[in-house]
């Protein structure tokens, strides 16, 4: 029996999710059109950037590219989710502790790992696990745990197809199609809550996020994020398209060489929900689902990431973005001024070891002595070229900003920083993959390939 490539299953799933979310949240469809329009204009206006993206194999993936996010309630759900995503070639990368930012979750991102898989389709899902241990009220904690233990977020078909994929090492085309349809059910929105209105209100009062996880039948996808080539332009145009963006773009400022990840979102919609405890049904509301866009840039080394973290922290000591946008201009100016200390040309970023690069031969002949020189010397001699490796992951401070802007101002609630990666990995049933190690390996592999090619050309 021939198995469908997991990359192909991921593409089927990503498209099915996008179609479902477009039906459920029409503003997402509008955002997709806006992003496409801005990307088209930018590509038409900048043939050099277009050629570079094509060379890197990124041009084709951009219109397909998106990430989503879900929030889970139990260890069992997280462990099964890991198995579900593995069927599509998505694996847990990175550990994000969001308790520092007043959000009682910790998270990972399921995503494809190697270059070929990322090029085929980079679909990722930011996946959070609720931490009831951070909720003070013991009685409420117990009630929430009981509700979560009783719910079943995966259909029987879905569980059977995951087991089949594991046993057979994959799925054939018909199995993959059935799997995608069954998996989609887990991420669907349910307008009927899983609890009565009184419990919903108590959960909501403890933390809005607790209500979002516990009160529903499953982990509805809460946003899908297309990738733009010019986030400032999309932010500027959003109001013209009838979408109100959050006050500031999260992440680094606008730069000549984009680094890491910049993100903006529109606020969650207020949606009708019916709450029932089996006796009384109450028509109410819930806000959870929103829209987001992102722009991706150079992946940073631990040294570059530490500089980024330092400069962002310094900025936020001076001005913290207010949710109402009242100090947005001051925040933008301070961010840009402080980030003047972050080198902004590709050569300095590379030679100072701040970012990861992919090496390839330029075609210029190398001399025998070149073969023993280091990468920087080979680039300086014009024998190798170095292209930025795109950041494929997330940023905890930005993620917290995205959570916050959707939870509302009153949700700004402090927990002490409380990372618990060991617990997360035990619940997941596997270690999370170190994200810097992935980029370092990709860089080293490209350099080894480039050197081998130079050696051959020379021999
Ligand atoms: C996830 C927020 C994090 C991002 O892009 O940083 C995220 C959530 O609200 O569940 O998606
Ligand atoms: Ni997101």
UniProtKB/TrEMBL annotation:
Keyword set, alphabetical order: Dioxygenase, Iron, Oxidoreductase
CDD domains xref list: VOC_YdcJ_like (cd16348)
Cofactor section: Fe(2+)
Protein name per Swiss-Prot or TrEMBL: 2-oxoadipate dioxygenase/decarboxylase
InterPro entries, alphabetized: HGLS (IPR009770), YdcJ_bac-like (IPR047869)
Organism domain of life: Bacteria
Matching SMART domains: DUF1338
Single GO MF descriptor: dioxygenase activity
Species of the source: Pseudooceanicola albus
EC number of the protein: 1.13.11.93
Assigned protein family: Belongs to the 2-oxoadipate dioxygenase/decarboxylase family.
């Amino acid at each position: 029996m021939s198995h469908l490539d997991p990359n192909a299953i991921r593409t089927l799933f990503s498209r099915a999710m996008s179609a479902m979310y477009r039906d459920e949240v029409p503003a997402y469809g509008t955002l997709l059109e806006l992003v496409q329009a801005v990307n088209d204009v930018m590509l038409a206006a900048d043939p050099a950037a277009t050629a570079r993206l094509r060379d890197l194999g990124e041009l084709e993936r951009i219109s397909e590219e998106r990430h989503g996010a879900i929030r889970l309630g139990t260890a069992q759900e997280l462990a099964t989710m890991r198995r579900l995503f593995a069927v599509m070639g998505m694996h847990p990368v990175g550990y994000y502790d969001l308790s520092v930012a007043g959000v009682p979750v910790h998270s990972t991102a399921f995503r494809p790992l190697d270059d070929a898989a990322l090029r085929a389709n980079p679909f990722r899902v930011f996946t959070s696990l609720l931490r009831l241990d951070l909720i003070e009220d013991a009685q409420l904690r117990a009630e929430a745990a009981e509700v979560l233990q009783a719910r079943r977020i995966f259909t029987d078909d879905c569980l059977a197809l995951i087991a089949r994929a594991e046993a057979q090492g994959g799925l054939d085309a018909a199995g993959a199609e059935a799997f995608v349809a069954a998996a989609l059910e887990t991420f669907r929105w349910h307008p009927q809550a899983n609890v009565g209105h009184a419990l919903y209100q108590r959960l909501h009062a403890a933390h809005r996020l607790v209500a979002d996880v516990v009160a529903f039948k499953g982990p509805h996808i809460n946003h899908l994020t297309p990738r733009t080539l010019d986030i400032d332009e999309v932010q500027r145009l959003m109001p013209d398209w009838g979408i109100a963006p959050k006050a500031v773009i999260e992440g680094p400022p606008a730069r000549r060489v984009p680094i890491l990840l910049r993100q903006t979102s529109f606020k969650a919609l207020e949606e009708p929900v019916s709450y029932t405890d089996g006796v009384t049904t109450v028509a109410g509301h819930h806000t959870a689902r929103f829209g987001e866009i992102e722009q991706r840039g150079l992946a940073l080394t631990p040294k570059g990431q530490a500089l980024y973290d330092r400069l962002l922290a310094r900025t936020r000591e001076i001005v913290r973005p207010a949710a109402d946008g009242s100090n947005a201009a001051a925040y933008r100016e301070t961010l840009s001024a402080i980030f003047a200390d972050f080198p902004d040309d590709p050569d300095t970023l590379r030679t100072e070891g701040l970012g990861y690069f992919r090496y390839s031969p330029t075609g210029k002949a190398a001399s025998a002595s070149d073969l023993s020189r280091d990468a920087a010397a080979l680039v300086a001699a014009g024998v190798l070229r170095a292209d930025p490796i795109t950041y494929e992951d997330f940023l905890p401070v930005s993620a917290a900003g995205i959570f916050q802007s959707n939870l509302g101002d009153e949700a700004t609630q402090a927990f002490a920083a409380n990372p618990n990666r060991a617990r997360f990995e035990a619940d997941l049933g596997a270690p999370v993959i170190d994200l810097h190690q992935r980029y370092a390996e990709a860089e080293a592999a490209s350099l080894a390939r480039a050197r081998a090619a130079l050696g051959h050309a020379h021999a």
